[in-house]
Amino acid sequence: MAGKAAQRQNKPNEPSIENRKARHEFFIEDTLECGLELTGTEIKSVRAGQISLGEGYVRAVAEPLSLTLYAVHIAEYPPAGEVNQHKPTRARRLLAHKREIRKLSVKTQQKGFTLVPLKVYFLRGKAKLLIGLGRGKQKSDKRQDTAKKQAKREIERAMSRRR
């Protein structure tokens, strides 16, 4: 028992950053875990939780088979000094298998589908990005989701009062 507690304490406290806006704006049809190709100062900023996925999007290109992440802001890392800094919103390459990139490329060619970053987390010390194949929601769909959430909250409140 003491061994497991010691293992939990030794585990580094690494953040998990989610894009909650994406689930509100899109129906997520499929997800894929990709690696992120980052520089030294970028990975330090991500470990510190200084990343914003809200405006980001992903492009899958079929010809030079690649996935690229755009418009994601990773803050500069001040301890690195002025000379060694990265550009906060540069395009970043994503790492995935060729067959997965091809599959996503074909699906994004269809009307209404896009690739959105959902979550950045660490797995065995490596930064991973969960991307989702999303289909845009209409305004009425968003309202229905909001109504369902409110109804669920009210039911939970009523049930907690009964106990």
How does this model look, in words?
This protein is an alpha+beta fold and 163 residues long. The chain has a single domain (17-137), classed as Small Protein B, Chain: A (Beta Barrel), CATH 2.40.280.10. Helices cover 36% and strands 33% of the residues. It has five helices and nine strands, in the order H-E-H-E-H-E-E-E-E-E-H-E-E-H. The chain has helices at 2-10, 20-25, 40-47, 98-109, 139-162, and strands spanning 17-18, 26-36, 51-52, 57-61, 66-70, 73-74, 92-95, 113-123, 126-136. The strands form two sheets. A seven-stranded antiparallel β-sheet has the order 1-8-9-2-7-5-4. Strands 3-6 form a two-stranded antiparallel ribbon. The longest helix has 24 residues, at 139-162. It is globular and about 60 Å long. Mean pLDDT is 86; it is low at 5-10.
SSE blueprint and pairings:
Elements: H1 2-10, E1 17-18, H2 20-25, E2 26-36, H3 40-47, E3 51-52, E4 57-61, E5 66-70, E6 73-74, E7 92-95, H4 98-109, E8 113-123, E9 126-136, H5 139-162
Number of strands: 9
How large is the radius of gyration?
19 Å
Name the quaternary structure: single chain
Shape summary: globular
Going by helix content, strand content and strand pairing, the class is alpha+beta
What is the total domain count? Answer: 1
What can be said about the biggest beta sheet?
A: 7 strands, antiparallel
The run of helices and strands is: HEHEHEEEEEHEEH
CATH H-tier superfamily: Small protein B
The CATH architecture category equals Beta Barrel
Cα-to-Cα separation, first versus last residue: 34 Å
Mean pLDDT: 86
- Strand order of the biggest β-sheet: 1-8-9-2-7-5-4
What count of helical segments does DSSP give? 5
- Measured by DSSP, the beta-strand proportion falls in 25-35%
By CATH reckoning, the class would read Mainly Beta
* Percentage of residues in helical conformation: 25-40%
Low-confidence stretches: 5-10
CATH fold-type name: Small Protein B, Chain: A
